[in-house]
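Task: encode each sequence below as structure tokens.

Item 1
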Amino acid sequence: MQQLNRHVFIDYLRGFLVALVVLDHACHAYTEYYSKFWFFPDFETSIFFDIFHLHNDSFMMPSLFFLAGLFVLPSLQRRGYLSFAKERFLRLIIPYLVGLPLISPLLSYPRYLLNENANISYWQYLTEVWVNRLQAGPFWFLYYLVLLSTIAVILYAVVPKLFIFIGRFASWLIEKPLRGFAIFALMSAIILGISDLIWGAPWWIGWWADYKFFYVRGSRFILKAFYFFLGAGFSQISILNNKVFWENLGNNWQKWALFTLGVALCYMSYTLSYFNEGAYSDHIRYYVAEQRAYDINLSDIISGFWPVFFEHAPKVLLRTTLLGIFICSQLVTYLAVFYRFLNKDNLQWASLAAAAYGIYIIHEPFVVWSHWFFYGGQAPLLVRFIVAGFGSLFLSWLIVNKVLLRLPGFKRIL
């Protein structure tokens, strides 16, 4: 029980992050700026939901990948290669293969009804439209985690000293906390800046343009890989067993929270103030794509690139730099808070943690159809969000906790 209590805050943090995923999806339709990236924005919006979204979207997925990386090598070492592969297949590939046809069409069907054909039946849409427009929806997390886990296993088998090196880097980060945090944030900012300029902030990239079942968010997929492998590095130095580190971090949670609040104020105020004035500029990406389309030679592309870069890159890079610092400070702050206050058994948090994976898999249709139900209606905006967010979270938890986790096959997967 002592070992469980020492690490239980990680389970609770994972459950919290998944809850944020649900609430973040629920607020998308009602954001003033970011709703245009959602399935269908509502007519009534509020900038307060943009602020909530900026808090969530920044760190929740990188943090989930960090936690996944924290346990990938210990699981491999404990299980062995064959057992590890079987566990990954059951936990990641089976939900993807089952969820793709059962859940993903439910997400795009309402938008199709609204924008293209209001009279098409669901079965007709599924068999005639969706099969030609495959989309992974929330299941991108699964196949990307499979890819990163596979890379980690191969690297561990071929060049195990690589993880020793990453572990030493992780050890240095915590031995020199201020300098380590600065390097951590700087690396995050550099990755975000380069990715954003190449692929754009909100856009997804992948293979097979018409079959989007292996797509990742262009501006974030490298950062998530960085967090995943950094988590693997921290596992190499047994960070979860370093009680001195966690006690020190937990005792300083207020300082980290105040710092994160200050960074949040800078990041959010700049991003929302310059949302349409350059903070999300795609000019560099479009410039490169346009030059390639016209088959212009490389020297001419480079000569014309720098004026475009110096005109548009600074505002983008300021946002991505603030974002990189914000993500790092959020991860550290929430780790500190959860260790300080939730490093003990708690029935409610344990219930959320146990159902978190299942909630992530099944929640999005409830959110999307709640948006559909309220679309163009007269219900107050806050009511719409509460139903779409907390209602979907509760309903997903209820189904997973009271039904799916009681079925032996589902329990093993979830």
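Item 2
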Amino acid sequence: MSALRVETAAGGAPRRIGAILLRHVYLLRSSWIRVFDLMYWPLLQMIVWGFMTVFLANHSSWVVRAGGVLIGAVLLWDVLVRGQFGMTWSLLEEMWSRNFANLFVTPLRPGEFALALMGLSMLRTIVSIGPAALLAIPMFAYSIFEIGLPLVAFYALLTMLGWAAGLVLCAMLIRFGLSAESFAWASIFVLAPISGVYYPVDTLPVWLRPVAWSLPSTYVFEGMRAIAIDHVVRTDLMVRSLALNCVYLAAAFAVFLYAFRRARERGRLLQTGE
């Protein structure tokens, strides 16, 4: 009998994860405002940096040689940002509607909820970045898809880091409630200056470079510039980024589960909307 319960619980996990995904798909499908909000900032950033690239191309031989490296950097940076936002936003919508505790009246488990948040992060990222990437083609004659297969690796690596950051921030929201909401919006931008998004890591002070190289995102942006400027695919950078991502993601998952357990023990699951 116990074996049957274990088998049923395991078999029901994909359905429970799918139910969370479906709930938020229905929310997006029924609200064009939500969809527009997802696309707005990536589109705006791409347009601003696209015109900046056009301006710099007339005044700098480096920008001419690098092509649309700045536009590509903006689009990839938004993959990381939207990867994290996709998780925290989905959790916040449950908290704002005071539905978070109701989810765990069902057989839904914390780990399954975390996996559902990851799936929602990928969905929201595609909806956010896709239109900006496509619009850059007719507006600025730049297609990030010309990177080829390495683009898939860049997307996956940045999404993984977004998940790690998102899990830690979701853990804070579960543990401390909406009083930690501001961290969900601002924390990820701390990585921008030290990830070498718009400039090589060599631009940073010597003492800050080891910090930059401890971030998986740094290897992605250095790899993107290697392709755009030197036309070289740096698989070594991808491997290092993947290794760091695995460590950070495992640690973040542990933090999420620990925060959930502590919140449940202290009765915080019923107070997350306060």
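Check on item 2: The chain has one domain: 2-270. The first helix runs from residue 2 to 29.
End of task.
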